Amino acid sequence: MRFLARSAALIGLAVGLAASLATIEPRPSSTVDRVATELAPAVAEHCARCHGLEKTNGGVTLAGVRDAADVARDRATWSRALAQLRAEKMPPKRAPQPSAEQRATMIAALEGELLRGGPVGDTAKVTVRRLNRTEFKNTIRDLFGVVYDAEARLPADPPTYGFDSLGDGLTASPLLLEKYWDAAGEIADRLFGDATLRRQLLEAAGSPAEPVDAERVLRYILERTFRRPLEEGELESRLQIVNAELERGRSKDEALHAALRSVLLSPHFLFRWEHDRPGPRRSGERPLGDFELASRLSYFLWSTTPDEELWHSARTGALSGEAELRAQVRRMLASPRSQALSTEFAGQWLRFREILSVAVDFRRFPSFDWRLRHAMNDEARCFFEGLIREDRSILELLDSKYTYLNEALAAHYGIAGVKGAEMRKVDLPDRRRGGVLGMGAVLTVTSYPLRTSPVLRGRYVLDQILGEPPGPPPPGVPALPKDDHQPDKLTPRERLEEHRKNPACASCHARIDPPGFALEPYDGIGAWRDQFLGKPIDARATLADGVAVDGPVDLKDALLARKEVFVRSMAERMFTYAVGRPIDAADAPVLDGIVREVAASGYRMSALVLGVVLCDPFRRRGST
């Protein structure tokens, strides 16, 4: 019987998961294909020499585009191309330029196709999202008080578009379904086996301890796990499980245990459903219901289920009002639970949480122990939490007069006067450490185990900071040595200069390497150095926009001079994380508005979060 029950539960879960994969009907093509008539000829004239079928700078091929279908097949690439055209970064300044009229025509043709393929309404469509490991763990903790070690018991969630919480990457394998079965049993065992947790559940459900009101407890469990009011038949189906167990001579606790296990295996718990329903629509989209909005908001800011206050706001219908939504965002940002925005959003976007697992050669860097590893992670986490808690300027991520240190990390940085293991806010004596580019976590995860990497660090600046990621390297390019202590005594800069003599490498490295060269005064674990291999560190570089820099402080100044680019990049990452999908061409006006609001606020963190929450793609959803 146990095997049959387990099989039935897993089959039911699999069927529910399959139902979540809604299909999207293709849209009819435009009667006039402007890609074929206007864009393709201009691409052949101005782009093919660098992005042709034989020469593919940055791994990007644009030549060969014939019609709208070619653009539709690779929307991500063409969206990036559109951004480059708008910013007049492509073609590069050294190449012949299209006339202003021709550039405008290219932009209009490309915009038209990208918007047609995903109009404003449809870009609000989000793949149904499964709870990732962190969200599963936090939700179980906040619903039942059970601390479940999801990281040890559930498979890792693959990142998609830089985050492990987007529906496109959160598949449900047979192995995962088996793990969910085991998890549901363990959670139910601990809930009904612990007198304190059991009492807390009964009190929350409004049930007396004896006799237990099974229907009231089940209703509470179902509403909170499904994160919405119940639909017809949902309570009755679980009461049937309870009654069947009671008829077999089980106690009420044992009967509720069986029902809870079935609830925790339901797709309505494991997935964040946003159902289509009748109501006013605009271009095929609809506003999210209050309970759906509560879930989006709670998992965005807290990585967990809505609390009682948010639940009450949704139940009364108040949450969809802008004033209430603003008030809830400010309340939630002030809560300790907003630390999840640091560990989950910032930790993945800025990559500092990788410091907890990155490989470092302990023979080359003997000072790098577990204390220093965790202190580096804590510095970046505390810094971002401080931006939220104190509503500081997000530009402090580029440069700041303070950071968070303990004794071990301060000694690593050569900063005196910090004692003890506790992290605390410390004023910095100079500008070398302020901002993320001076943090040990970032500098270590952008190095190799045995050496620094101007390439990895340069890519980090272009991608994480500026949102202008370079393309992948062309195939067949030889890798640089894993160890920078070679018989030829070449520094990383000298070795890269040799590498760049290969024409296939030169164009990409001209963009990537300069920011990395400016960060060479930091060694492979972020300690400051003035010399390497007996030679003075040469941190001079000319960035792709022609700005000359010499070291990390100059690099920060150059980035601050482009602060609007950084703000746009951060807004795009936060938008992707919050809404659950990558940006599209149709999102450009939305993001433009968010950037303007953030700048008008003095670049306050709260303005960025509110701008994302109040935008249409967060508050609306496309129909399936």
Give a concise summary:
It is built from 29 helices and 10 strands. With 624 residues, it is mainly α. The longest helix is centred in the first third of the chain and has 20 residues, at 174-193.
Please tell me what the overall shape is. globular
Write down the domain tally.
3
Strand element count: 10
What distance separates the N and C termini?
39 Å
Mean pLDDT: 88
Low-pLDDT residue spans: 20-30, 117-124
Strand order of the largest sheet: 1-2
- Tally of helical runs: 29
Strand proportion? under 5%
Describe, in plain words, how this protein is organized in 3D.
With 624 residues, this protein is mainly α. It has 3 domains: 2-19 and 127-272, no CATH class; 48-124, no CATH class; 347-560, no CATH class. Helix content is 53%, strand content 4%. It has 29 helices and 10 strands. The protein has helices spanning 2-19, 34-46, 48-51, 68-73, 75-86, 100-117, 133-144, 150-153, 174-193, 195-205, 214-226, 234-247, 252-264, 267-270, 290-301, 308-315, 322-334, 339-349, 370-389, 407-413, 440-445, 454-465, 492-499, 503-518, 552-561, 563-579, 588-600, 605-614, 616-619, and strands at residues 129-130, 271-272, 285-287, 402-405, 424-427, 531-532, 535-536, 540-542, 548-550, 620-622. A hairpin with a 5-residue loop joins strand 8 (540-542) and strand 9 (548-550). Helix 2 packs across helix 6 (100-117).
